[in-house]
């Protein structure tokens, strides 16, 4: 056991998860690579849980943060803040939400917590619809709506949560149906559920479930849900903490795969926009955002330092068409991994969009999850110089692949080859 690991165990909570049998200390990074404390170089296919969105040590972000830190780092929302206004203007324009207002937080958890407060206040209801297999953060309210037992340490909650079918296409009672029948069955389930409860405040849903193993419904499911919800005045909250900013390649926001009936009422975001700086936020129509009848501020949400980072990072993303790169390189990577999976009886599915790819593992000859192999593949990939993630929900285990959106074709091929070797060595 390393000295740092021993110190970690002595002072930090037992439930604070660490990857690897010998946990890794990352000391620095550049582009799509990071280095461990022992000098080992790794190709990073997880980006600090989808947070290093553009690149490690991106010069534009480093320069913006350094210059801003030399002026002022923080003042709170009690004072006018030019970088915060500028970033809010850009996000509102990109959001697709009409008459949008933006509120900045420090994390995705806090963003979802704020969205829940807005929705319940606006609708005067504490009932929330959520998706099975979902994850929305680690605050008391976010845990209360998380439909993933592995990440739900308590059943206590300030909210009444009802779980809806549809977030996992390949499993569950409707899995054998074609997409059209699947959507119809999920909509019928939603209508039936609404007939048995008092009017909910909102449905919250990740367009692609992150912690749940990068699972998603057929395109159009949430549009069909929105038709049902809109008739009843129920809000739709799109949790874009992991899917936003072009990561899926096909769309800038994940909800745009379900846009037939218009945009969500509320969108939450975080992770990639700060490229490592602590930025989260909520986008909502003005009438919803302004419905609160008491004062509120954010001490650390929207600090000058994090807003400078976000502005520089978003500018780089747009000017270099990293969404398009995610679509092109991600498409190649998915096809390469599917060719690998075809030779491995323990790979149930390779799924995803853009540079948000899940590889679901099962015990060969069965449909049962294989979390032991997922951990073994993580170890073997690290030994080969590749960092990936893992996840999954009820009876599932999946490898999670989400590199920075500037990933090159050569790096995609390199990572796929390392992962192929890791899978072969663990069969």
Could you walk me through the main structural features you see in this protein, from its secondary elements to its overall organization?
The chain is 37% helix and 16% strand. With 427 residues, the protein is of the alpha/beta class. The protein has a 7-stranded mixed β-sheet with strand order 4-10-9-8-7-5-6, sandwiched between helices. The chain has a 4-stranded mixed β-sheet with strand order 1-2-3-13. A hairpin with a 4-residue loop joins β2 and β3 (41-44).
| Terminal residue distance | 28 Å
The secondary-structure class comes to alpha/beta
Radius of gyration: 21 Å
Strand order of the largest sheet: 4-10-9-8-7-5-6
Number of alpha- plus pi-helical segments: 13
Number of strands: 15
Query: Runs with pLDDT <50, length 5+?
Result: none
Question: What's the structural blueprint in terms of helices and strands?
Answer:
Layout: H1 3-11, E1 26-30, E2 33-36, E3 41-44, H2 47-50, H3 59-69, H4 82-95, E4 100-105, H5 108-123, E5 127-131, H6 140-144, E6 160-164, H7 179-194, E7 202-205, H8 221-231, E8 235-239, E9 266-269, E10 280-285, H9 286-289, H10 304-319, H11 322-341, E11 347-353, E12 356-361, H12 371-383, E13 386-387, E14 389-391, E15 398-401, H13 409-425
Helix pairs in contact: 3-10, 4-10, 7-8, 11-13, 12-13
């Amino acid at each position: 056991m390393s000295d740092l690991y021993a110190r970690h165990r002595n002072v930090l909570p037992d439930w604070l998860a660490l990857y690897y049998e010998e946990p890794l200390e990352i000391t620095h990074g550049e582009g799509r690579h990071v280095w461990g404390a022992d000098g080992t170089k790794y190709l990073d296919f997880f980006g600090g849980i989808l947070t290093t969105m553009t690149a490690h040590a991106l010069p534009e972000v480093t320069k913006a943060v350094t210059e801003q830190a030399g002026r002022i780092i923080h003042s709170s929302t009690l004072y006018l803040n030019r970088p915060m206004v500028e970033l809010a203007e850009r996000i509102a324009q990109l959001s697709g939400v009409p008459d949008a207002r933006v509120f900045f937080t420090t994390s995705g958890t806090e963003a979802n917590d704020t969205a829940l407060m807005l929705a319940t206040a606006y609708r005067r209801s504490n009932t929330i619809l959520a998706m099975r297999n979902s994850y929305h953060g680690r605050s008391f309210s976010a845990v209360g709506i998380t439909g993933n037992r592995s990440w739900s340490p308590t059943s206590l909650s300030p909210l009444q949560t009802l779980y809806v079918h549809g977030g996992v296409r390949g499993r569950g009672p409707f899995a054998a149906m074609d997409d059209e029948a699947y959507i119809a069955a999920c909509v019928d389930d939603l209508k039936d559920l609404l007939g048995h409860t008092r009017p909910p405040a909102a449905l919250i849903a990740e367009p692609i479930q992150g912690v749940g193993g990068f699972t998603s419904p057929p395109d159009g499911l949430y549009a069909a849900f929105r038709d049902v919800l809109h008739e009843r005045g129920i809000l739709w909250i799109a949790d874009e903490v992991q899917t936003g900013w072009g990561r899926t390649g096909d769309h800038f926001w994940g909800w745009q795969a379900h846009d037939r009936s218009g945009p969500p009422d509320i969108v939450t975001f975080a992770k990639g926009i700060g490229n490592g700086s602590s930025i989260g936020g909520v986008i909502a129509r003005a009438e919803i955002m302004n419905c609160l009848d008491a004062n509120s501020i954010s001490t650390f949400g929207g600090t000058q330092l994090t807003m400078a980072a976000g502005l520089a990072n978003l500018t780089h993303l747009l000017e270099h068409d990293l969404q398009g790169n995610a679509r092109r390189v991600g498409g190649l990577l998915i096809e390469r991994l599917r060719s690998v999976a075809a030779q491995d009886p323990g790979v149930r599915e390779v799924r995803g969009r853009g540079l948000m790819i899940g590889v679901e593992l099962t015990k060969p000859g069965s449909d049962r999850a294989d979390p032991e192999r997922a951990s073994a593949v993580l170890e073997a990939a690290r030994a080969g110089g590749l960092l990936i993630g893992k996840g999954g929900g009820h009876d599932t285990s999946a490898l999670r692949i989400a590199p920075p959106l500037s990933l090159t074709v050569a790096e995609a091929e390199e990572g796929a080859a390392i992962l192929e070797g890791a899978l072969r060595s663990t069969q």
